[in-house]
Each structure stands twice: as C-alpha cells, then as structure tokens.
UniProtKB/TrEMBL annotation:
PANTHER family for the chain: PUTATIVE (AFU_ORTHOLOGUE AFUA_2G14390)-RELATED (PTHR43861:SF3), TRANS-ACONITATE 2-METHYLTRANSFERASE-RELATED (PTHR43861)
MF annotations from Gene Ontology: methyltransferase activity
Start and end residues of each Methyltransferase type domain: 47-138
A GO BP annotation: methylation
Source lineage: Bacteria, Bacillati, Actinomycetota, Actinomycetes, Kitasatosporales
Organism per entry: Streptomyces avermitilis
Name recorded for this polypeptide: Methyltransferase
InterPro entries: Methyltransf_12, SAM-dependent_MTases_sf
Pfam families linked to this entry: Methyltransf_12
Keywords assigned by UniProt, alphabetized: Methyltransferase, Transferase
SUPFAM superfamilies tied to this protein: S-adenosyl-L-methionine-dependent methyltransferases
Length: 265
C-alpha cells in the first residue's frame, strides 16, 4: 500500500529501529505508569495505533491477559512481527487516516507520537473516538516540540547551532503536515470531540550530550539531513551538531511528553 500518511520519518530502515529504541527506552516507563494508573486491567480490549516496534502493545497484552485482546496497527508493521506470539495480540497494517476501524469496540485506545505527524489527524482522532465503546478511554502521548530549551552548552555558538538545526528539522516535519505542538493542542481537540473527563499530564527531563534520550535528535538529524541544507545549514554544521550531541557539557530539555486522555460518554 502506498504511504499517503504524511509521516516524514523513515519507518523501514535501521534508522527507524534506532528511533524506536530511543522512544521506548526513554518514554515507555512514563507511558506504562500512566496506563497502569488509568486502570488497564485483565479482560480489556485494547487498540494500539501506530504501534512502531510494539513495546506498548506487548505491555498491554501482558496486562490484559488471556481474557483480553490487543489490536496493534501501523502503516508499516514490519517491526511488529514477534507480537502475535503473545497469543492475545493481532497485528494489522492499517492507515489510521484512511481506513475504518470497528466502531464501539475498544475499552482502551492508545497512540504515541502518531497524530502529531499526520495532516489528517482530525479524521484519525474522530475514527479513534468512534472505535471506543461507551465508557472506553482514549489516551494520547504526544510531544510539544516547540519547548526544547538548551540547558547548558560549551559556547553560545553551539547553543545557537543546535537551535538552528532543531528549527530546520521541525521545518521538514511541518512542511510534511505535522503539527509540532500537537501535544499542546490535543487537550482542546479531545474536548471538542465530546469526550468526558478530559485530563492531561506532562513529563520531561534533561538530556545530556551522549546520553540515551539525546540520540533521538541524532537519529532525526541523520534521517532528514539531506533536506536540511536548503535551510542554510552546511554538511559541516550537521557534523558539528551531531558531535555536540555527544558532548557531556551540552544539555537540552527532552521533548515534553504530554499525555491527554478522555472517556467516551
Ligand atoms: C514516531 S513513531 C512512534 C512509534 C510508537 N508509537 C512509539 O511511540 O514507540 C510513529 C509511528 O506511526 C506510524 N504511522 C505513521 N503514519 C501512520 C498512519 N497513517 N497510520 C498508522 N500508523 C502510522 C509509523 O510507521 C511509526 O511506526
């Protein structure tokens, strides 16, 4: 199936694997704690949209047990191959912007860092809401990519280099239809769908050069690097920025993960 989704990052090569690695190791503990607090329990029917490499779907499968079920979807499901071994997981190639879901079916629908990328996020959101059973819960984990302050840098020039590079990467995503501040906009969007009990919480930490989380910037810069030089950045700037991200004297705030949830009436 052709990829019509607007997703600007690579989701097929080893680089996608590295991205999933960073996302899972950094954000899974936050996602799992929130989902546990929201009451994911044995017997529930769950949908994980844009499941990536499947860590959240695997956690849900464990949590809901043999009487529950998990449907894990992605437009590129090649990273989800081992999930069906869990017995209660089904993996489906599915484009959330274009293809229907069973309506009124799920107790819990979760997506992390999917709608941010998609120009047709409203249609996707409406489809997810319709797929909830009455009383079922939608939980979105999204970034506000507009708040990534540099916390320390070896020089003012290096801080400025990071900021220019980050703006350029965000420019690539925005031109592909992403809403890079969607984490902030999700709360209002969930309320507008008519969901009840809409709430939200935000998590962030400092990312030091060379640490686990900051690798996300390196993966992203390498991924869209060919499109950045049009923004006045040279190949040398790219290389200097990649080295800066390995320098322990550099630190930047992580992307804040904003979790927003609500219940179908
Ligand atoms: C940034 S990754 C996040 C992966 C995973 N949710 C995580 O947080 O670890 C975004 C995922 O959304 C998937 N995706 C992009 N467009 C999609 C669409 N239209 N429908 C379903 N999945 C999509 C990508 O293939 C990718 O796996």
């Amino acid at each position: 199936m052709p990829d019509t989704s607007g997703y600007a990052f690579d989701n097929t090569s080893e680089r996608a694997g590295s991205r999933y690695d960073v996302l899972e190791s950094t954000y899974d503990p936050v996602t799992f704690a929130r989902l546990a607090e929201l009451g994911v329990a044995p017997g529930m029917r769950c949908l994980e949209v844009g499941a990536g490499a499947g860590s959240v779907a695997a956690w849900l499968a464990e949590r809901v047990g043999p009487d529950g079920s998990v449907l894990a979807t992605d437009i590129e499901p090649r990273w989800l191959g081992e999930l069906p071994a869990a017995g209660n997981v089904r993996v489906v190639r599915h484009d959330i912007t274009q293809e229907d879901l069973p309506e009124g079916r799920f107790d819990l629908i979760h997506a992390r860092l999917v709608l941010l990328h998609l120009p047709e996020r409203q249609a996707a959101l409406d489809r997810m809401v319709r797929a909830l059973r009455p009383g079922g819960r939608l939980v979105l984990d999204e970034f506000d990519c507009g708040w990534v302050p540099v916390l320390s840098a070896p020089s003012p020039e290096s801080a400025e280099l990071f900021e220019r590079m980050h703006d350029a990467v965000m420019g690539v995503l925005t031109r592909a239809g992403a809403d890079i501040r969607w984490g902030l906009h999700a709360y209002g969007a969930l309320r507008a769908t008519g969901l009840a009990e809409v709430a939200s919480a935000t998590w962030a930490e400092a990312w030091v050069g060379g640490s686990r989380g900051i690798r996300l910037h390196q993966v992203n810069i390498r991924d869209v690097g060919g499109q950045l030089t049009g923004d006045g950045l040279t190949d040398d700037d790219l290389e200097r920025c990649l080295r800066l991200l390995d320098d322990p004297s550099f630190a930047v705030n992580s992307y804040p993960l904003i979790t927003t949830w609500g219940r179908r009436r």
